[in-house]
Amino acid sequence: GENVEQHPSTLSVQEGDSAVIKCTYSDSASNYFPWYKQELGKGPQLIIDIRSNVGEKKDQRIAVTLNKTAKHFSLHITETQPEDSAVYFCAASQRAAGNKLTFGGGTRVLVKP
Amino acid sequence: EAQVTQNPRYLITVTGKKLTVTCSQNMNHEYMSWYRQDPGLGLRQIYYSMNVEVTDKGDVPEGYKVSRKEKRNFPLILESPSPNQTSLYFCASSPLPTAGRNEQFFGPGTRLTVL
């Protein structure tokens, strides 16, 4: 089955700096890669996603890149703000597996003011 | 308001005492799923359901049961809880993955402690 590795497990950045989280996946059939943000005491919430036919996607301060050949994808947050402090999860999915998501281990991001 | 609700939010119980965690969604989603979240392991799928009366095992189904008698409800049942089931549990729902509609909506979580 699919295996998703996520690094780093914790990330501390100064407000205004950029944050990058990297994930690798094992199953070349995976074709959908969402990123979820989990704030303290809440459930994960989708913040951005990318499909395998696209190499990059951007939404304001967040962007995701995908390298299908190397089987890795990354989340980039620019101009970080204190409200970006949260746990971020990457995931991988494939249509043949229904809506099953395989998650990475999570990255705890702390933005220091 | 479109949402997924779970009850209870917190539960402390003892080994072997049957319990049920309820999950309900008001978005008319076909797909529902249960995950457990443990430090460093991310979220792992326990069971999922593609529609009423259709359920299947996820990656970590041992010790759990589910049912899907109505479209909006997907309860998680622990017949004989053990300490290794101490975890944070999330229910999620989504439309079926057609036309690119993959987003899963998560409930607020249930923190379970089994003594």
Task: Explain how this protein is built.
The complex is a heterodimer of chains A (113) and B (115). With 113 residues, chain A is mostly beta strands. Chain A contains no helices and 11 strands. Chain A has strands spanning 4-7, 10-14, 19-25, 32-38, 45-51, 56-59, 62-67, 72-77, 86-92, 102-103, 107-112. The mean pLDDT of chain A is 93. Chain B has 115 residues and is mainly β. Chain B is built from no helices and 11 strands. In chain B, the strands form 2 sheets. In chain B, strands 2, 4, 5, 6, 9, 10 and 11 form a 7-stranded mixed β-sheet that branches. Chain B is globular. Chain B starts with a strand and ends with a strand. The mean pLDDT of chain B is 94.
Task: Indicate the topology.
The complex is a heterodimer of chains A (113) and B (115).
Chain A: E1 4-7, E2 10-14, E3 19-25, E4 32-38, E5 45-51, E6 56-59, E7 62-67, E8 72-77, E9 86-92, E10 102-103, E11 107-112
Parallel strand pairs in A: 2-11
Antiparallel strand pairs in A: 1-3, 3-8, 4-5, 4-9, 6-7, 7-8, 9-10, 9-11
Chain B: E1 4-7, E2 10-13, E3 19-25, E4 31-38, E5 42-51, E6 54-57, E7 65-66, E8 76-78, E9 87-94, E10 105-106, E11 110-114
For this entry, give a set of tags.
heterodimer; A: 113 residues; mainly beta; 6-stranded mixed sheet; 5-stranded antiparallel sheet; 11 strands; B: 115 residues; 7-stranded mixed sheet; 4-stranded antiparallel sheet; 0% helix; 50% strand; globular
